[in-house]
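This part of the workshop introduces the protein records we will be handling. Backbone structure tokens are a discrete shorthand for how the chain folds in space. Once this layout is familiar, the rest of the handout is easier to follow. The record below serves as our worked example for the rest of this section.
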Amino acid sequence: MAKLMGSEQYRPTVLSSLQRARRNCSSPVSSLTALGIVIVSGCVGPTINNLKITPQVLCEGQTALMRWDVEGEPTIAFSPEPAPTARGSCAAKGREAFGFDLVAEKHGKEVAKQIEVIQLRDGSSEPVIFPTSRLEGAEVVASGDKNRALWTDHVRVETVASCQERAIQVEHSGKIALLAANGSPSDALAGTALTGSWELRSSLSPAEQANPRLRPKQLEILATLRCEKETP
């Protein structure tokens, strides 16, 4: 159960139907008690100048801060979002997603903006997928970053595993994991933050070396996650 700001606690069943929260512009701070998101806002006219929730990925017990700046009268609505269809073995699991809609209204006209918040459950998993960008000898290399604005340091890696039935070497946070083609998990990166830079590399088969069309367009691994508790 997630601990929220103040005395309220988040209960997933509360979110089975659409919830709405309205704020008067003269009130600088209010709280969305069902999700425990502290709201700090400013009002000056009829458009949405800014909408931000930090962080957008929540661990249980973690709180988030929601800020907006609108011109007009704001209305906030939030509701659960359906889980995406799982595709193959490299699919995100163990999470709940909520869509937040901010609508600003004035003189009978409305403008809207949406942002998504994700709450992770124990044993959740997240794919790490990057397009291949270069060849080094007989290896294909893919690299990239997991969004630091989206993921916080509270989200840590437990294990990583290959999703493509091919051996993959992973370098992340100064550590290296050698992943077997059979998808068996490795704890070589355990304790590292999910966020940050990743490099994946895999050896090409003789057929892939001879025919570029057979080479993988991206490299995929699956990370199982755990959440570190916030320091009081």
Q: What stands out?
A: The two ends are 17 Å apart (CA to CA).
